[in-house]
Specification:
By secondary structure, the protein is mainly alpha-helical. The relative contact order is 0.03. It contains 49 helices and five strands.
């Protein structure tokens, strides 16, 4: 096996072997740190000696034989059957041993190889020293390895022979960074990744070959996921950000193997350090290891120096969590639990932060004493604020099991435990609600914790219990101004989300009344003296009910920018959801996607509720853009991250998005499967029920069950009215009901619903007005339809809803065909088909493919194309296909201004006024010619 950075060592060994063969006996002592490669170099020396014709005698010393007199000599004597060798049951006297070696060497050159001489028994070391002084003109090469003493002083063997010129001491050190790089390049074939991998290997091993070999084996067994991560496909485009695979079976086992090479005291110190982690100063490690703070500190410092030199530690710390875990794991269960409990007591006495103490209390896996309950509660609160919910739940569970003596303390601990579990899985936390309600009724739960309890109860549809908690909160708020402000904020939120529970009257007068302060003026913190995010949620709810969302989008976006990626609490989560829905209501799905991308940073498994909520809203935003493929995928991911039964009444949002996207994209079987899930009955009385009912109505329409669909749409209308959401209805129930009436042949009712929708304030938004105009065209005279549909199409283009554009274009093409305008009909239908395929609307695309062209396509005018430059043809072609100016600029790598200039010239040359008048076959060959530089639309849209 190839050795690295050992060329000088091997050259010296060859030289000494030559000297020995020439009759000038030589002694070589290979010294270095543990596992530094001495044994491998000794093996190379044996191989060289045997190739040169020398006979080898070998011995490997071990701690277990260090007290056996003559143990090493016995191994050497019995390693080779030669004449006059001592019998197997004899321990040779060193005089006899020396004479036997010299007589044997007179017949054949010898090499004596002794590994780990520092573990040899004193008698054998004395005999070897005796032999080394008498080699003289004998053809003998004596090579031994020994671990270097911490002080750097020579070993007893070398000390006796220090003045002998035939005795050579050779340092065998760890590999340098350059040597580690060569090791990685030859062993792993990592290519361009080798420098980064080598740097990480050197950091973890200190250049110790044993650890390097273990890391290399981990790498080879790393699996597809780890290899993909380092290549950049999982960790991002920069491979340098990806960690090397490290396992307990490889690297961890090698670390433990190294520890076993020292005396038990070093291993005990290493375990104490592994348990204390970053808080492991030498004096604390000494105390935890049972060595005493004062006398043991020096011992610890020497042990840490040894471990650092051997690559186990780096700057006094384990360089990888795997190393610390396996070293701590070398203690038995009871010993490890005792270590953690002692560490918790030690750190608590020294005034370390609660999370540092709690980590050891949890690591003991034992019931804790009463003194630890407030420590665990404080640590749980800290972990909640940091977004580490699993750890917070672990601390809360431990504190809850300890059973605080004070009922108020027990209720407070239970409340924080419930909150931590809620952030992981609301279904898991639901089991805590009865105990919290009992504590509330007994007066043990603090009133300022009641808003959070009310939200959890309503999530699971427990309205009666929520009403009881509300009564308790309002009773306490009557005597507490700060609590009164929180109660008012909660009523504002309830007025939008659960209006039947909101208090009516002067106490909750809307702040959005004319002349009242705006949310931007009040700011989230200024809204009350309590939880600022509850105040923000209340302000957002009032904003919805005022119908002025579009006027306050700047404040809404600032609210989202103030949020942390993992949320920060139940009301921060609620505020995020309301703010994102407000942007959707204002017709800004792109802004929703941008904010979701920022807020969704981090590991989804660490905060599944937060990431599932963002995923559901992202999917809804993609649905608003008409990206059916992306919406379908996003809704699936949201329901995978948080199963449907854990969503409570909020399940209507992701289910509604998924069912709608499935229907429009042709995944009817998936839509039917999702409708088979039985949502909570309380969902149908909440705003989340609107998404579900509307989606179910669309499914009925797609299945040719118009009456059933109409029933669901009208149920949406009744729910909107009962919730008081006429201004802020999240679903277009009137236009959908109008479509159902139209399929049933009742144009009068359809027309009334459409006109009713157009007369309402929320019809002023682009998408809502566009849908109303499209349905109005369907019930209007044929000659009026193109004008109405063109206006609807323009509104859909402004909002970026490609699915709505495709439907409007399909209707417009049919309208042109009905009027006998075959040229425009053909162009429009072709554009509709392209957009339907582009956004994933398979049923609409198939329907349009089945529509025959109104007339045979005319031959392209010979004078049109030549008048356009190649750049103008490319821009015009993409404009015909329905791309916006910004999308065309991105695809062609030009600015939006350049696109506008090209289109202006195209309009002038072809004598048209707008892009919808451009001929559909304009530049048909350009697409194939430029396809290499054009990103596929499906990729572009799903990436957004």
């Amino acid at each position: 096996m190839r050795l690295f950075e050992r060329d000088d060592h091997e050259a010296l060994i060859r030289s000494l072997a030559g000297e020995s063969l020439a009759g000038r006996g030589q002694v070589l002592l290979l010294e270095g740190v543990a596992a530094g490669g001495r044994t491998a170099l000794l093996g190379e020396a044996v191989a060289q000696a045997e190739r040169a014709g020398m006979v080898t005698l070998r011995a490997a010393c071990a701690p277990s034989e260090s007290e056996v007199p003559g143990g090493m000599l016995s191994q050497l004597a019995h390693s080779l059957p030669v004449p006059d060798a001592p019998g197997e049951d004899q321990v040779p006297d060193f005089h006899v041993f020396c004479r036997w070696i010299l007589r044997t060497a007179a017949r054949t050159p010898l090499m004596i190889a002794v590994d780990d001489l520092h573990h040899a028994d004193p008698a054998s070391v004395q005999a070897l020293s005796y032999l080394a002084r008498r080699l003289g003109a004998s053809p003998v090469l004596l090579v031994a390895t020994a671990r270097r003493d911490d002080s750097g002083s020579p070993s007893p063997f070398a000390a006796e022979l220090v003045a002998d010129p035939r005795v050579h001491r050779l340092e065998v050190g760890p590999l340098s960074a350059a040597g580690t790089l060569r090791f990685v390049e030859e062993r792993l074939a990592a290519g361009a990744r080798a420098p980064r991998i080598a740097a990480e290997f050197h950091r973890l091993s200190g250049g110790i070959p044993l650890l390097l070999e273990a890391l290399a084996e981990d790498w080879r067994r790393g699996g597809t996921a780890d290899l993909a991560a380092v290549s950049g496909t999982a960790a991002g485009p920069d491979p340098a950000s990806a960690p090397a695979p490290v396992t307990e079976q490889g690297y961890g086992t090698a670390v433990v193997d190294l520890l076993r090479r020292w005396d038990p005291e070093v291993a005990r110190i290493a375990r104490a350090l592994a348990v204390l982690g970053e808080h492991g100063s030498p004096d604390r490690v000494a105390e935890l290891a049972g060595l005493g703070r004062e006398p043991g500190t020096g011992q610890v410092e020497r042990a840490l120096a040894r471990l650092t030199a051997a690559g186990v530690l780096r700057e006094g710390r384990f360089p990888h969590p795997v190393a610390a875990a396996v070293v701590a794991g070398t203690a038995g269960g009871a010993e490890r639990a005792a270590l953690h409990l002692r560490a918790a007591g030690l750190l608590h006495a020294l005034g370390e932060p609660a999370p540092a103490v709690a980590r050891h209390l949890a690591g003991s896996r034992q019931q804790v004493a009463q003194w630890a309950v407030p420590v665990l509660a404080e640590a749980a609160e800290h972990e909640l604020l940091a977004g580490r919910y699993e750890q917070a739940a672990r601390y809360g569970e431990l504190a809850h099991e300890a059973g605080p003596a004070d009922p108020a303390d027990r209720a407070a601990v239970l409340d924080r435990l419930t909150e931590a579990e809620w952030r992981l899985n609301p279904s898991l936390a639901q089991r805590r609600l009865p105990a919290l309600l009992t504590a509330m009724r007994a007066g043990h739960l603090r009133p300022d914790r009641l808003p959070g309890l009310i939200r959890r109860l309503l999530w699971h549809g427990r309205q009666a219990d929520a009403e009881a908690a509300l009564a308790r909160l309002r009773e306490a708020a009557a005597a507490d101004p700060a609590l009164r402000a929180e109660s008012r904020d909660l009523d504002s939120w309830l007025a939008f989300t659960h209006p039947r529970l909101a208090r009516r009257g002067p106490a909750s007068a809307p702040v959005w009344a004319p002349g009242g302060p705006s949310a931007a003026e009040r700011g989230p913190v200024a809204l009350s003296g309590g939880d600022p995010w509850l105040a923000t949620a209340g302000a957002l709810a009032e904003l919805f009910l005022s119908g002025r969302v579009g006027d306050r989008t700047d404040w809404v976006e600032q609210t989202l920018r103030n949020l942390r990626p993992h949320g920060g609490g139940p009301w921060a989560e609620e505020s995020a959801g309301l703010a994102l829905l407000a942007l959707l209501d204002a017709g800004l799905p792109d802004a929703v996607l941008e904010h979701c991308a920022v807020l969704a940073e981090g590991d989804p498994a660490a905060a599944p509720v937060w990431h599932a909520l963002l995923g559901a809203l992202r999917a809804e935003a993609l649905l608003h853009r008409g990206d059916l493929t992306g919406a379908l995928r996003g809704a699936r991911e949201a329901l995978t991250l948080l199963p449907a039964h854990a969503w409570g009444v909020a399940v209507g949002l992701p289910l509604g998005t998924l069912i709608t996207a499935a229907i429009r994209s042709g995944a009817f079987e998936e839509g039917r499967r999702q409708l088979a899930f039985a949502p909570p009955e309380a969902m149908f009385a909440s705003r989340y029920g609107l998404y579900y009912l509307h989606a179910r109505g669309l499914h009925h329409l797609a299945a040719e069950r118009a009456y059933a669909g109409l029933s669901d749409f009208l149920a949406c209308g009744e729910l909107v009215q009962s919730l008081g959401l006429e201004i802020a209805a999240p679903v277009p129930w009137r236009t959908s009901a109008a479509e159902a009436w139209l399929r049933l042949g009742n144009e009068d009712r359809a027309r009334r619903l459409v006109r009713d929708q157009l007369s309402r304030s929320d019809a002023a938004d682009g998408s809502g007005r566009g849908r109303s105009l499209r349905m109005l065209a369907a019930v209007s005279a044929p000659e009026r339809r193109p004008q109405l549909l063109l206006e609807a199409l323009e509104l859909f283009e402004e909002t970026g809803d490609q699915y709505a554009q495709a439907r409007a274009l399909a209707d417009l093409g049919r309208a042109y065909s009905a009027l006998g305008d075959s040229s425009r009909a053909r162009t429009t239908l072709r554009r509709a088909r392209y957009l339907a395929v582009s956004c994933g609307a398979a049923p609409l695309g198939e329907e349009l493919l089945a529509v025959p062209d109104p007339a045979p396509p005319a031959e392209p005018r010979a004078t049109d194309e030549p008048r356009l430059t190649e750049s103008e043809r490319r821009v015009a072609h993409l404009a015909v296909l329905g791309y916006t100016n910004r999308e065309i600029a991105a695809k062609l790598y030009v600015t939006s201004s350049t696109v506008e200039q090209h289109l202006t010239r195209v309009y002038r040359k072809l004598d048209v006024k707008r892009r919808r008048d451009l001929p559909a076959d304009l530049g048909t060959m350009t697409l194939h010619r430029r396809r290499r530089r054009t990103q596929p639309s499906s990729v572009r849209r799903s990436a957004s």
